[in-house]
């Protein structure tokens, strides 16, 4: 086996799955005979393909499957001077922004650096607001060091910041920091929650409803945990919309062979990129309420909405607005991550989940389960903190932070105003303004009636913008 390439070994493992007579990757005869040839050596080991946990064998993860391994091999060959019909491998298989050259947000890296190496707090090279953030976080760390374990749920001050962020994102819908759990990326949170839901055998085995197309974390986690994957199809002809009648079809069919207990939603979608309308979310919540399904809302792309007319509605907010009967009963966990949004800090493995209406006894077991892995990496927690608590107007780093979006604040404001309302004004920086102040200039040559409409639009835009970036 050692003579095989990495990709071939992976395929051979999948072929072993086929030999065992179960579902697996298609493979060719040569690969299968390679596997047979090495079988005796494998038998010498306690852990061979025959004794490997069958759930691990059944797990597939397309995002890092044989194509990606082959790409790695080709890349190494190119580096060694091999001639190919191309000169580089362009990795468009995974959403890893920094790997594709995105520059980190300076403020985030400053706060993390200060936390990791507090001696830098004396350095004049770091802004005061980054130092304040780092000091506050270090106060919460055991021994004031990032090298200590944190509480399993995450550092309290960071959970407080996440709670404030979610509350402000959702226009004041209350958040209890005790319902916030910091995670090792969204993947870890999703996996932990899925674990809670597993029970039963045969027809009572837990079924997990997932969209198709899906992000392969879901099918992989379901395989690994031994749950039943229940597919519901997104409607490609209708911009990959989620349709309640398809949910119903999928659920009714699944009830013939398992016990569907949870419904996973990815909004905005991956790989389909659809953004669910408020009405669609309301339908889904109503469906979960009526059919007694636990909701998992994967909202890691909430900041990545660019299409005109699309807006992110969080499941939590819509649930709240549907009234107490729903808000006090529907069980929901929503997930977010440092990997996406404008930071794209995948390697920090930061994330959080908000847990709503979880039975208090279950919650105690959930916390026990989380405590087994001690805590999420503390540097990742710090990165999460900066994502939810970026520099504010008036703070030293605010201007640079906005420049990090490659736009001065007044340029950003005017661009958004144009994109969202169609009103075209000029950023104050074009006229000169006092350092740290921002203006825009507009003419008032319109008729009074049109001017009234325009001013109302500017007012609405301004209020919304302040809510979003407050
Ligand atoms: C929809 C979706 N959920 C979860 C994840 C995993 O995110 P994380 O890096 O936070 O584990 C991804 C990563 O691409 C994703 O696209």
Task: Label this structure with key terms.
470 residues, alpha/beta, Aspartate Aminotransferase, domain 2, 3 domains, seven-stranded mixed beta sheet, two-stranded antiparallel ribbon, disordered N terminus, binds pyridoxal-5'-phosphate
Architecture blueprint of SSEs:
Blueprint: H1 6-19, H2 29-43, H3 54-58, H4 66-79, H5 106-116, H6 128-140, H7 156-169, E1 180-184, H8 185-197, E2 206-212, H9 217-225, E3 228-233, H10 244-254, E4 259-266, H11 278-291, E5 294-298, H12 315-321, H13 324-327, E6 332-337, E7 350-356, H14 360-372, H15 378-388, H16 398-404, H17 409-421, E8 426-427, E9 440-441, H18 448-469
Helix pairs in contact: 1-2, 1-4, 5-6, 5-15, 7-15, 8-9
The structure holds pyridoxal-5'-phosphate (PLP).
Question: What is this entry, summarized?
Answer:
This protein has 18 helices and 9 strands. It is an alpha/beta fold. It folds into 3 domains: 6-94, no CATH class; 156-388, 3-Layer(aba) Sandwich (Aspartate Aminotransferase, domain 2); 407-469, no CATH class.
Describe this structure in words.
With 470 residues, the chain is α/β, with parallel strands linked by helices. The chain folds into three domains: 6-94, no CATH class; 156-388, Type I PLP-dependent aspartate aminotransferase-like (Major domain) (Aspartate Aminotransferase, domain 2); 407-469, no CATH class. 45% of the residues lie in helices and 10% in strands. The protein is built from 18 helices and nine strands. Strands 1-7-6-5-4-2-3 form a seven-stranded mixed beta sheet, with helices on both faces. The chain starts with 5 loop residues before the first helix and ends with a helix. The model is unreliable at 1-38 (pLDDT under 50). The protein binds pyridoxal-5'-phosphate (PLP). Pyridoxal-5'-phosphate binds at residues 95, 185-187, 215, 217, 266, 270, 298, 300, 337, 339, 346, 351.
């Amino acid at each position: 086996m050692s003579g095989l390439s990495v990709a071939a070994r992976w395929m051979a493992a999948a072929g072993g799955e086929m030999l065992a007579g179960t579902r697996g990757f298609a493979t060719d005869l040569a690969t299968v005979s390679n596997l047979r040839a090495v079988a005796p050596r494998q038998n010498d080991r306690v852990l061979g393909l025959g004794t490997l946990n069958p759930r691990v064998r059944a797990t597939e993860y397309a995002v890092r499957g044989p194509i990606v391994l082959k790409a790695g091999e080709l890349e190494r060959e190119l580096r060694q001077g091999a001639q190919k019909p191309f000169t580089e491998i362009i990795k468009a298989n995974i959403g890893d922004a920094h790997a594709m050259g995105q520059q980190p947000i300076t403020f985030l890296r400053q706060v993390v650096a200060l936390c990791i190496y507090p001696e830098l707090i004396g350095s004049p090279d770091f802004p005061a607001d980054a130092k304040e953030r780092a000091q506050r976080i270090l106060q919460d760390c055991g021994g004031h060091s990032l090298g200590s374990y944190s509480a399993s749920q995450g550092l309290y001050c960071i959970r407080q910041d996440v709670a404030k962020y979610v509350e402000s994102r959702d226009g004041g819908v209350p958040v209890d920091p005790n319902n916030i759990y910091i995670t090792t990326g969204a993947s870890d949170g999703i996996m932990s929650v899925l674990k809670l839901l597993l029970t039963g055998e045969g027809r009572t085995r837990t079924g997990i409803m997932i969209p198709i197309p899906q992000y392969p974390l879901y099918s992989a986690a379901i395989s690994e945990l031994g749950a039943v994957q229940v597919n519901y199809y997104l409607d490609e002809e209708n911009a990959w919309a989620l349709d309640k009648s398809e949910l119903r079809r999928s659920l009714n069919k699944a009830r013939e062979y398992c016990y569907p207990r949870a419904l996973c939603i990815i909004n905005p979608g991956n790989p389909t990129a659809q953004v669910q309308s408020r009405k669609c979310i309301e339908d889904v919540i109503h469906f979960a309420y009526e059919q007694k399904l636990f909701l998992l809302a994967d909202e890691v792309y909430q900041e990545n909405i660019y299409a005109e007319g699309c807006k992110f509605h969080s499941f939590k907010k819509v649930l709240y607005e549907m009234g107490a009967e729903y808000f006090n009963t529907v069980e929901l966990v929503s997930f977010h991550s440092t990997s996406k949004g404008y930071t794209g800090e995948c390697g920090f493995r930061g994330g959080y989940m908000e847990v709503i209406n979880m039975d208090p006894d279950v919650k105690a077991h959930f916390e026990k389960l989380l405590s087994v892995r001690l805590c999420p990496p503390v540097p990742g927690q710090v990165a999460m903190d900066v994502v939810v608590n970026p520099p504010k107007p008036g703070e030293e780093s605010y201007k640079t932070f906005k420049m990090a979006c490659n736009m001065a604040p007044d340029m950003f404001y005017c661009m958004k105003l144009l994109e969202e309302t169609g009103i075209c004004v000029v950023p104050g920086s074009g006229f000169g303004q006092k350092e740290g102040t921002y203006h825009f200039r507009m003419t008032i040559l319109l008729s009074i009636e049109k001017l009234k409409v325009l001013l109302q639009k500017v007012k609405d835009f301004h209020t919304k913008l302040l809510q979003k970036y407050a």
